[in-house]
Amino acid sequence: MIEDEELRELFKLESEDHIQEMTEGLLSLEKEPNDSATLDNVYRKAHIIKGSAVMVGEEDIVKIAHLIEDYLSLVKDGKVKFTSKKFDLIYEGLDAIRPLVKEAIYGTPANVDVAAVLSRLQFGVEDSPDSELVVESSLEITETIIQKEVVIEPEVSLNDESRMIEDEELRELFKLESEDHIQEMTEGLLTLEKQPEDTEALDLVYRKAHIIKGSAVMVGRDGIVKIAHLIEEYLSVVKDGKVKFTSKKFDLIYEGLDAIRPLVKEAIYGTPSNIDVPAVLSRLQFGVEDSSELEAPTESEPEINEPKPSAEITAEAVNEKQISRALDAANKILHKEEDPTPVNAPLAKYTIDTVRVDTKTLDDLITHTGELAVTKLRIDKRFEEFDDMLFLLDEWKRKSSHRKRIFEDLEKNSGKSNDGPSHELEEMEKVWEEEGELFVKISSFLDDFKNFSYEDNARLEFISKNLDAGIRKIRLVQLSTIFNLFPRTVRDLAKQTGKEIELIIEGGETTADKRIVEEIKDPLIHIIRNSIDHGLEKSDERLKSGKSPSGTIRLRAYQSATSIMIEVTDDGRGLNMESIKKTALKRNVCAPEALEKMDTKQIQELIFTPAFSTSNIVTEISGRGVGMDIVKNKVENLKGKIKLDSKPGLGCTFQLSLPFTLATIKSLIVVVDGVNYAMPTDHIETMLTVKKEDIFPIEGKETINYNDNPLSVAYLFDLLELKGKSKKEHHEMPCIVISTGGNAVGLFVDSLLGDQEIVLKPQCKILKRVRNISGAAILGTGDVCKVLNPSDLIKSVGKKDSHVNVQFKPQVDTRKKRLLLAEDSLTVRAQEKKILEKAGYEVIAAVDGLDAFNKLKMHKFDGVVSDVEMPNMTGLALAENIRKSKEYADIPIVLVTSLAKDEDKARGVKAGANAYITKGSFDQRVLLEVLDNLI
Question: Cα dist. 633→428, 637, 923 in Å?
């Protein structure tokens, strides 16, 4: 058994698929032996199987696959023709490889007489008289392969090298340089796919591959060096005009870049890349080998039968000149020098123009500046108290003056007597005079203190605002950071769906807070995937509709006065209103009578309902019932809004409105039952004063007339489920109208205190999710204030609302869900069973469709996961039989298969499957996500 678990799993997945494809191809060739495309595919699969076996050290598989490949090569060259006997020999070879593969994966004995198989296969090659092959004994074939073929053997250094670059400065330099060059390569390749004759783009991509290789040499990353070198080698052949780009070659280069990215992260952060470098090199090497014969030796240069230099490329194999150039370039970057300084030149003043700051430090600073803003509000509150103190002082002074006047009257009256003023009155007069002087001093001091404090406060406000603005500016990132990732995504999905798609990006220079840029990536990918799968039509359908054959997705960003706006627009078919209605009724999203009353906008908004999908069948691209719900929740968590506009036959637009910052939230402070609550102003439409007689019932709900439309209203006291006290109802009540996701409600409160900037404090893990509450904040008064969640409040009102019947998920059933797994491949069955059981399911396995159908009658199942191609009864037949039975008609069925064509998926829909997942792009998270939503 192969020792390395990850390599073993990769070999398992790869070899089984390729053996199956070879078998299918051979069956096709038996009927149409002149089908060159199928022949090329079978030959290529044999070559890949051989290369994979070399990587994992399975010599017996190498020997058998090599002889099959040699024979197919003779057929390709027209030196021999297929015969029935030859087909039998190749099938015999594949029948021998299968158990050998299982032996390598599971350690179970293959019980295959390799020497006998090789003897018969050799005879199959030997009987071609024109063959130039030298036939060795079966014990010598492996050595011959190593000498003849351009292979890259696995090296210990690839697995033993340290995960992270030790030198911190060199590590940071490698990070900055490699990430930029990989992105530029990706952009250049996307350009070359559209304009393969663009020599400038080709030169750029070639140069970037060369730089990546040189940088990897400098930091001792052999895996990156080898992959980059093979890419560079192929690009060199293209530059020389010896070969032309093909779709397959682009895929290979992209695969190489996809491998380099995690290897770079491993070198920078030390996180395991989980990349099987030898396997990647094997596939990339095949891409280069296609052009290997172009470098034919001249007559004066004898041909040397040695491996290509590319087969042995390592860090040491790159010449000293390249290493020297790489080090010189690094030195210039590190010291910010354009040219080396002469030895005798006077020393220039040393300055540091830039410093590196960890983003965590910036996050902390943002939090502190937010707290500084709150502190500023508290100081403003102190000024109010200071004014109160001055008022009391004035009051005291006024009363003191009044008492002094009384004293003066007494003094005048006493002066009329012969004895004159008494001694006591004389003493009191002195007290009043001293008190008056004290009042003057205190008043003067307080006036000066107040003026100086106002000046200090104004200065503090100026500094805090500049500090806050400066730090936020540092955190600003251009949206192109994530926008540049989407062309590759669109390109791959276009190929996968067989559609012509052009992505237009505008406003990539628009800046936003780093966290917003990071968090908005996944929602945008969801929207784009849905546009490709549901919105854009295929070329023939577009032509029939009078459109251009190529669909367009436009990704646009810009800034409004208060928000960052991102729009995703496609020119596809638009939302299917009838399909949305049917799905809404099928999933009990709303009642039929409520649906009839909805306008177009309300019906369109239903796609944001949890687990809502109009797709007939779930695939990896979309239709998993989670996409748009995730988009809405994510945008709202970022304190943003999402709007939808769809026109039948013309396309669809999603508009995302996001705040400039998430550090502080502008909120309206409201009072309910003597307690302060903060409502984010982004979701407040207006504030009203509502008279009690203006409230009327509609379908059992309290309603008011708002802009000539009915608006549901509720008491915030009731929604917060406050206990022990009764809500205050007055003849006139303050009402705040809030909206999110196209829905609006009015909330009655006791009073409004005004706007305030607050810093949201997330709830602790114990209170991770409290309905209607987002968190807490400290007000300028020092009081703790709960921050309301507008989206939850609207849902709370909507629970009884007939327009949008949004309900919270019921309690989760603690009983283990039971699945029926039908899969004829032992290895795949074992792997899928392990994945499902780890996710908490009880799994009962069946070896084929017939076995599964029989076991379905013996137990109660919550879902079925099945392969398609199986003996006795296929997965499609299993699905059809299940749907025919009333007892099992509603049970969810998920097909997991290697058949990925549209017609295959159509057959799955017709058979009654709920989901269709292809093994070629198998992701266990997708399978578990689909099951979670279907069951």
Answer: 75, 6, 24
Q: What residues contact 338, with CB distance under 8 A and at least 6 apart?
A: 332
CB-count exposure of residue 614 (10 Å: 0-12, 13-18, 19+):
buried
Nearest to 649 by CA among 790, 775, 535: 535
* 841 three-state secondary structure: coil
Q: Select from 2.60.120.920, 3.30.70.120, 3.40.50.300, 3.40.50.2300 the CATH code of 818-934.
A: 3.40.50.2300
What does the pLDDT look like over 424-467, one tens digit per residue? 666 776 777 777 777 777 777 777 777 777 777 777 777 777 77
Tell me, what's the pLDDT at 475? 74
**Of residues 504, 514, 586, the one with CA closest to residue 552:** 504
What mean pLDDT comes out for the span 821-843? 82
Spatial separation of the C-alpha atoms in residues 26 and 95, rounded to whole Å? 13
Per-residue model confidence (pLDDT) at position 864: 93
Structure tokens of 312?
């042995």
The whole-number average pLDDT for the span 545-557 is: 93
pLDDT (0 to 100) of residue 602: 83
Mean of pLDDT values over 500-509: 92
CA 570 to chain centre: 21
For the chain, the C-alpha Rg in angstroms (whole number) is: 38
As its CATH architecture, domain 479-658 has: 2-Layer Sandwich (3.30)
Domain at 163-294+309-329, CATH homologous superfamily: HPT domain (1.20.120.160)
What is the pTM assigned to this prediction?
A: 0.52
Say how many Å lie between the first and final Cα of the chain, rounded. Answer: 37
Residue 696's DSSP bridge partners are 703
Taking the domain 665-798, which CATH number applies?
2.40.50.180
Q: Which of 932, 807, 915, 917 has its CA nearest to residue 862? A: 932
Q: Which helix (H) or strand (E) holds 511?
A: strand 511-513
Hey, which bits of 717-772 come out as E strands?
Answer: 732-740, 743-748, 751-758, 761-762
Say which range, 349-358, 572-581, 610-619, 868-877, has the weakest mean pLDDT: 349-358
Residues forming beta bridges with residue 575, ordered by sequence position: none
Residue 395: strand, helix, or coil:
helix
> HEC string of 511-531?
EEEHHHHHHHHHHHHHHHHHH
Confidence of residue 70 (pLDDT cuts 50, 70, 90): confident
Is CATH 3.40.190.10 correct for 5-148? Answer: no
Note the pLDDT of residue 638. 84
- Give me the helix-helix angle, 875-884 and 902-911, nearest 10°: 30
For residue 421, name the pLDDT band (cuts at 50, 70, 90): low
Q: What angle do CA 622, 626, 631 make, to 5 degrees?
A: 95
Phi, psi values for residue 353, rounded to 5° = -80, -30
